[in-house]
Amino acid sequence: MTQQPSDQTQRHGAHAALAPGQTPKYHHGRSPASWAGSMIALVGFVIAAVGFFLDLNVPLIVIGLVVAVGGALVGGLMARAGLGQVWE
Fold first, then answer.
1. Measured between alpha carbons, how far is 75 from 40 in angstroms, rounded to an integer?
2. How far apart are the first and last CA of the chain?
3. Are 38 and 84 in contact (CB under 8 A)?
4. Contact present, 85 and 35 (Cβ < 8 Å)
5. Closest by CA position to 80, among listed 39, 32, 43, 42
6. For the chain, what is the mean pLDDT?
7. Per residue in 77-86, is it b (16+ CB within 10 Å) or e — as a string?
8. d(CA 81, CA 45)
């Protein structure tokens, strides 16, 4: 008879055995911080590109670039909050 994995093991995979206060190790940019920052920056660059092709709509380009920079800030803040890659 095999033992069924606990609910916590199913949700967190190999990270389920972490001690309290430890953060899981993410490798190769597969952290929530990198995903959030990348997706927000992608949306910002798409907005800026649409503004560029709409006869150089400068306000839309600026809004897109501000959103892209916001993605970098969100990713950095999330990494500092413990959701980023652990550097050893």
1. 9
2. 40
3. no
4. no
5. 32
6. 81
7. ebbeeebbbe
8. 25
Task: For the chain, state the CA radius of gyration.
Answer: 19
Task: Please count the helices (runs of H) and the strands (runs of E) in the chain.
Answer: 3, 0
Which residue type is seen at 80?
R
The pLDDT tens digits for 31-54 are: 899 999 999 999 999 999 999 999
For 18, other C-beta atoms within 10 Å of its C-beta total 12
Task: Supply 51's token pair.
Answer: 């503004």
Residue 17 carries which side chain, given as an amino acid letter? A
Tokens of 8: 């916590």
Determine contact, residues 78/36, Cβ cutoff 8 Å: yes
pLDDT at 9: 47
Answering whether pTM is above 0.90, one says: no
Q: Is 37 buried (19+), middle (13-18) or exposed (0-12) by CB count in 10 A?
A: buried
Residue 84 has a pLDDT of 84
